[in-house]
User: Fold this.
Amino acid sequence: MRLVSLAASAVFAVTAFATTAEAGGSSVAYFGLRGSFVETGGDNTTSASIDYGQTYNNGFAASVFMGWVLDQNFRLELEAGYRNTDLNTVYVTKDDFNPGAFPLGAVGGTFAVGGSAQVGAMMTNLYYDIHFLPDIGVLPWIGAGIGGAYIDYSISEPTTVVLDAHDVTWAFAYQVMAGITVPLADGISGSIGYRFFQTADFNYVDDFGALSLDYQTKLTQQSIDVGLQFHL
Assistant:
């Protein structure tokens, strides 16, 4: 919810200082760059013997994209992006492997961890431009996208190797977006928006061969995005 409040404040500020030209002009194609401040939710991780929740540090994302204006309201966009966030803590919610036999043992225990979730995402997005503010040059929009995420997931717990893992896998991903675009110069516009990004459940295998635990989790992220578009 903190990111939603930040997004609303940013949209208000940009709207207040927007110029009077309509964003995007009459161009039928554009390309651009996007940077994001990312907050990752604490999705649960499950396995046959050990379950835990995790928290993440704030991360970042960057992407390049190419878009086409289909008509007055709809745009199609292809996006290639990179996302990175570091793990912070885990808290054990189930331990059926050998309760209390290793330092992780107690259910309810919270432990500092290392590791990261790095994602390369290829997304196809469809946007709907809302043309109800033509006089102040602000173009609001909403959008949704689907695609694939190549996930490099690692975790390390310094007290014990029970949770240590490093694996790569593909997962389905989707996202929903909302924001505004404003003109900056002839053929150039800027955008600011909010994004909700989530992967489907994916599996990874621990590094401790004696356990051979097959873990399942997913990534849920919110972000504030700032973009720069060049209209062809």
